[in-house]
Every structure is written in C-alpha cells, then in structure tokens.
Amino acid sequence: MTEYISVKNPATGELIEEVKTNTNEEVEQAILRSHESFKAWSSVNAHERSRLLQSWSRLIQENKEEIAKVMTLESGKPIKESLGEVDYATSYIDWYAEEAKRLYGRTIPANTETKRIIITRQAVGPVAAITPWNFPAAMMTRKAAPALAAGCTFVVKPAAETPLTTIKLIELAHKAGIPENVVQCVNGSGKTIGDIFTSSPYIRKITFTGSTPVGKSLITKSANTVQHVSMELGGHAPVIVAADADIDFAVTQTIASKFRNAGQTCICANRVLVHESVVDEFSQKLASAVSRLKVGNGLHEDIDVGPVINKNGFNKVVSQLEDAVNKGAEVLAGNEFDANQEKGYFFIHPTVLKDVKEDMNIMQEETFGPVIPITTFTELDEAIKIANSTPFGLASYFFTNDYRTGVYLNENLDFGIVGWNDGAPSAAHAPFGGMKESGIGREGGSEGIEPYLETKYLSIGNL
Ligand SMILES: NC(=O)C1=CN([C@@H]2O[C@H](COP(=O)(O)OP(=O)(O)OC[C@H]3O[C@@H](n4cnc5c(N)ncnc54)[C@H](OP(=O)(O)O)[C@@H]3O)[C@@H](O)[C@H]2O)C=CC1
Ligand SMILES: O=C(O)CCCC(=O)O
C-alpha cells in the first residue's frame, strides 16, 4: 500500500501537500542507480560539472520567490528568511561550481631516480545525505554541491516536515541537465532509510545534519560498511559579553543570532554570559528590543519570529522554561505562548531570562527555540569554563574591543566556529562544523569538498 507524508504548515496546522514515501525496494533501487551512474558522472570533466552546477544555481534563482514561499509554508520561517536562505543555498552551489575546477593533485620527490610519485584526488563514490527541517534548502545544497563538484553521485532524504523544498530543488537540478540518476531524492522515515543507507555496500559516504543522538547512531551503523561520515550535529552556543563590549552592538548581534528561524538553528546563541559590571544594561536593552519582535505567520512580510516546527520542539522549550523559572530565573520578556495542540501550531514569544544558573536544564541542553538565558561572570576564565562545560563545540560568540581579551577567548574556546563581534558567521566560503559531540568534518570553504574526495597515491617505478 502506498504511504504518504502529510506536510503541514506549522503556522496554521493546515495540510499543504501529501508526499508519497518510497518503499525500501525503491530506496535500494535509487542507491543502485547512484552506484551505476557513478563511473560516468565522475568521468565528466570538471569544467562541465561546474557548468551544470552553475545552471542549477541559475534556475533556483529564477524560481526564488516560489521556492521561498514553499519553504515558509512547510517550515514556518519568515518569508524574508526563506528568501535569504535561497541565496544562501545557491551560494554553496556557486562556490563549489568553482572549486570543481581546483581539485589539484601534487607530486612528491622520490628517493630514487627510477621512481616518480604522483598524488591525485578522486570522488569518494555514491553519497547519501539526510537533512533537517530547519534549513531545507541550504543544508541540502551544502552537501550536494561539493559532492557533485567532486564527481560523486548523490541521494538525499529530507526531513519529513519539509520535503517540498528539497523535491523542488532536485527537480531543478534535473532541469539544469544534471542526470536524474546522479542526484536523487527519496522520502520516508529517517530511521528506515538511514538503515538502508548505512548498510549499503554501494554508498561510500553518509553526510548528516540533525540531532546528536541520530548522528551517533549513523556513525555506529556506518561502521559496518566503513563509510566515510560527515556529521553536523547539535550545538549549545555561548555568547560572552566582556566588560568593555559595545553593548548596543552586542544586543543587536545576539538578537540576530538567537531569533533567526525562531531559535531553531544549531549555531544560535543559546547561553549568554555577561560580565557582572554590564549585565543590567545589557539585559534591559536586550529585553526591550526582544519585546518589539513581531511573532506570527511567516508569510506576512513584517514577521520576525515564526512558529516552532512541531509539538516536540514546543514541549522541549516549554519544559526548559518551566525548569528555569522554578529554579529562580527571572522573566524579562516573553514566556508567553500561542499554541493549539488540536490544530497543530505552536508559537513561543521571544523570551529573555535573567539570573540563570548552571544547574538549569536550559544551560545544559540545546534549546532550539526563541529563548535567551542570561547569566553573569566575574573573571574571563570563569566564562570560558562555563562555555566549554558541555559536550557541544559548534559555534561560540564573544563581544569585546580589547584585542588581548579577544585573542585569549579565541584560543581557549573549544568550538569549531568563533564569532568575535559577529553573530552571523555562516558563509559558503568558510568551513562550518563542530568539535566534540557537535560533529565530524566541515562544510563550506575549500575544506568542504575534502570529505567527498579520496587521495590516490601512484608510485611509478622501473624508469
Ligand atoms: N544540527 C541541526 O541543525 C539540527 C539539530 N536538531 C536537534 O534535534 C532536536 C530534535 O529534532 P529532530 O527533527 O527530531 O532531529 P532529527 O535528528 O531526528 O532529524 C533530522 C533528520 O534525521 C532524520 N532521522 C531521524 N531519526 C533518524 C534515524 N534513526 N536514522 C537516520 N535518520 C534519522 C530525520 O528524518 P525524519 O524526518 O524521518 O524524522 C530528519 O531527516 C532539535 O530540537 C534540535 O535540538 C534538529 C534538526 C537540525
Ligand atoms: O542549524 C543548522 O544546522 C545550520 C545553521 C545554518 C547555518 O548558519 O549555516
């Protein structure tokens, strides 16, 4: 019997579309097609692969408004953010269309006159990707673009909440001339399809963005087939506001970092540590600005913060808030909800908490919602200790105009991404990824294509 995923608008709970799921056999056939088309695709010359990627990017841009609308409908993010995400998604395709032409090898001087040593790079093989709902376009293209540029074939399983954007982008890839078997989309349960991907002898690499527990299980399962893995997992980003920081700037940047996609990003500000001498000024200015943010259906142009994705996401945030307030946190803004379980929409008003302590869950777990917990520190080392005290190591931020403080913080924070007076560090041309349980590997920049390449060492003898 054919099964369907009901894709619903998280701002209203209304059904947008039913998407047919793929049977296990269909997923296996897609993998087989990926395997069978690998040789031909990896043999296409890099300039041609680059041209095809450029055409894909152009077509996406030509359909930008339509894609953004679909993205807002299925993810709930404000339309201005969806339009921005389309640009962000194509920036990865544009970047890797160029990198395709720069997959250089090298030679190594041999220790005898009768040998030559040549190092070349080749595509790792068919790649399987599992992507999340929070960035339905960009998390796919930042995997697909380097994979295709390197000569890999690619099959993606998008999140059940947001398959429509991905389906549309894959259609456009085919329209751009990338062969249908080279880039494919399958739909269904993450667990079932993840198991098929990780046990397949044809898939040579699995790349995932999502929660840390799922990432860990994919790493474990892919060990059986020794697949390459790239994992972009949870974060718990600290923001450190030093005594000398430009407070107004720190407030603006913290808001930009925190409320993008209603706080549902793995790099958003999650714990704000403010020097005790400036905490009152910072908290008051922050709460006042946060109270002015407009919450609502992301299709309306003036909306700053949309709904959270679903009931599970809502319950997690509410339970963190209850725990914090019960343990003595003070609410400076928000802590209000507009949720309708029956209809299926869940809005959380942007919230600021003060007097947050380390034993509160909100300081230990990723929130994935529009809440800013503020705590204080006296010595810089105390802030560093708190910042580094979780298993996560994705993004961190600090605000200071003192170069010694800045260099010291950068050298002592155990995070893959550090924003110094910068709450928005993401860029296609820079390596994005985490330390510790936040992941393995980097996406973006020249580093982002490395995981899709094997190194081959050729030793020519008897010359
Ligand atoms: N790093 C990040 O950007 C993200 C982090 N998260 C974190 O995870 C929390 C929970 O969100 P949630 O959506 O449940 O995240 P998940 O990690 O469960 O989902 C992300 C993707 O993984 C798939 N998936 C789920 N279970 C498995 C599995 N066992 N094997 C393989 N793939 C699987 C999902 O498929 P399916 O649609 O079928 O569930 C989806 O495509 C959030 O609150 C947040 O803290 C979530 C999303 C992104
Ligand atoms: O939340 C994520 O998984 C990725 C954050 C988006 C970005 O800034 O690249």
Structure, explained:
The chain is of the alpha/beta class and 463 residues long. It folds into two domains: 4-233 and 438-460, Aldehyde Dehydrogenase, Chain A, domain 1 (3-Layer(aba) Sandwich); 237-427, Aldehyde Dehydrogenase, Chain A, domain 2. The protein is built from 13 helices and 22 strands. The protein has helices at 24-43, 46-62, 64-75, 79-99, 138-150, 163-175, 190-199, 212-222, 247-259, 279-291, 311-326, 380-387, 403-412; strands at residues 4-8, 15-20, 106-108, 116-123, 127-130, 154-157, 183-185, 205-209, 228-232, 237-241, 269-275, 330-333, 337-340, 345-348, 351-354, 371-377, 392-393, 395-399, 417-420, 435-436, 439-440, 453-460. It has a seven-stranded mixed beta sheet with strand order 12-15-16-11-10-18-19, with helices on both faces. The radius of gyration is 23 Å and the shape is globular. The N and C termini lie far apart (64 Å). The model has no long low-confidence stretch (mean pLDDT 98). Bound molecules: NADPH dihydro-nicotinamide-adenine-dinucleotide phosphate (NDP) and glutaric acid. The site of glutaric acid (GUA) has 10 residues, from loops. Keywords: Oxidoreductase.
